[in-house]
Amino acid sequence: MNDAPNDRKQKPPIDAAMLGAYVDGELPESQRAAVQAHLEQDAGASACVSAWRAQKAALQALCGPADKASAPVIVLRPRASRLRRFALAACWLLTASGVGLLTGALSSHIGTTAGPAAFAHRADIAYAVYAPEARHPVEVASSEEPHLVAWLSKRLDRRLSAPSLQEYGYRLVGGRLLPGDDKGPAALFMYEDRMGTRLTLYITRASSNDSTVRLLRAGGRSTLYWVANRTGYALSGAIPEPKLRAIAVDVCSELGGKPQAWQ
Amino acid sequence: MTFEADVIAGLPPLRRYARALTGDAAWADDLVQDTAERALVRASAFRQGTNLRAWLFTILRNLYIDQYRARREIAFDDETAPWRTMEAPPREVDGLVLRDVQRALYHLPLEQREILLLVGVEEISYQEAATVLDVPIGTVMSRLSRAREHMRMLLGDEPSQKPTPLKVVRKTP
To answer: Is B123 within 8 Å of A219 when comparing Cβ atoms?
Structure first.
């Protein structure tokens, strides 16, 4: 497999296992490029890769973050000779969990991220969940764009618009209303390119006016988020970050923000 | 860091994995407890410089398989299966989509569920997965593809209902 001189003849065929390795980032750079080229020609393989990526994101959303806050207390049943060592370990565990909970009484935990990243976190989850959806990615399709925008504007109590990403090859698929937080609901616009790669723009109320752009990374997805005119925006996708950033700059300026301040 | 501290630091992902694998919060907590205890008691069996994370997942998996055989009667697609009562997915999600994913996950055979969770959620490398599952890396890859296609079929994303026919394309120079 490693005979470089015969490289061209010895190229491994691109099979399902290789597509999987591509999705999981397990391919060496040389093979990655070959798979990428292959995906542009083969719609079946490309659909397969998007479906697997989507699956991975959905499973991650389902399982949630690994919760450090609820580290369990491990009870060590002492065996004479090592008693001291165990006692030490038990102390460690108590320290780690912060509060000495009873054995096995692990508080169930629903991720609540406070602070500026809260809406970005929700945007990321929304992407992870809805971008994979084959059947119902949106509630209202882009064929009814005026209705979609009017409806979401009304629910969010501000004038929204779905910026055009046509120049990047993304068309609007449609949108949906999401629960958001106690300040109000959120709107989600979804875009898709020819290969079926999706981006989402999440819009919600925000109290702060922090116009700096920030990045949230989770499970192969990236979310760029910022606030303008008391509205929080988050653009999520599983595409290279420089490209996502370029799109975000345009989205921000089209929606009345000041991406100049991002430098 | 001491060995104990390293083990403790490794527990949160282990717990997430156990919950998803068993679909049963109480069983998962027991498994994590047993795994941590076994790891601390058998600290001397761990070879310094090898992969602690893989070692912990291996212990948990072995414990799970033993217990799974003993509790064979639990059918995952049963109306009363514990995963059906697990905490609701995060609020942002209207539940339906993730419910479908969850249902599909528990309809997969154990062999496929465990690899999807290890690689897909815990994001361990193929090499680590091969260690944990005690199979060659090639088996990890083929099992993973089968699991993903199976899941895709269960979720109804797969238009043809049969494995994607992947053409072998050779570049003619």
So the answer is: yes
Residue B141 has pLDDT above 90, yes or no: yes
Whether B139 and chain A come into contact, CB under 8 Å, resolves to no
Tell me the CA distances in angstroms from A99 to A93, A94, A105, one per residue in order.
Answer: 10, 7, 11
**What range does the domain containing A97 cover?**
66-105
The answer to whether A204 and A232 have CB atoms below 8 angstroms apart is: yes
* A80 and A143, same domain (yes or no): no
CB within 8 Å: A52 and B116: no
CB contact under 8 A, B8 and A93: yes
Residues A43 and A74 in one domain: no
Inter-residue contact A186 to A122 (CB < 8 Å): yes
Tens of pLDDT, residue by residue over A221-230, are 899 999 988 8
Residues A101 and A137 placed together within one structural domain of the fold = no
- A220 in the same domain as A184: yes
**Locus of tokens 């601390």:** B40
pTM: 0.59
What is the per-residue pLDDT across A50-66, written as a single tens digit (0 to 9) for each? 889 888 888 888 887 77
Output A90 or B87, whichever has higher pLDDT.
Answer: B87
Dihedrals φ, ψ of A157, to 5°? Answer: 60, 45
Q: Is residue B173 one of the residues assigned to a domain?
A: no
Indicate whether this complex's ipTM tops 0.90.
Answer: no
pLDDT of residue A116: 45
Q: What angle do CA A122, A127, A131 make, to 5 degrees?
A: 160
Of A41, A65, A89, the CB nearest to B4: A89
- Shortest alpha-carbon distance between residue A13 and chain B (Å): 6
* 8 Å CB contact between A207 and A116: no
A85 and A54 belong to one structural domain: no
Task: Pick from A136-145, A201-210, B146-155 the range whose average pLDDT is largest.
Answer: B146-155
CATH number at residue B95: 1.20.140.160
| Predicted pLDDT of residue A27 | 93
